Amino acid sequence: MQALKNFWSNHPLLSNWLVLALGFVVILGISARHVGFTAGQWAALITVTVLLAGLCAWIIDWE
Fold it and tell me: How many domains does the chain have?
């Protein structure tokens, strides 16, 4: 647990990115589970979603 706290304190941007990306991918999976995407389409959507989470974390860090 201490290692997790140290990582959060030492790397706030990366930890925010990780939390946002995880949440975004879960929401994506729930909302698009019945659409019928192929594996390649899922991979592309997840990749773009993780990059979007990184952009959001970077914008949040501007404060």
Answer: 1
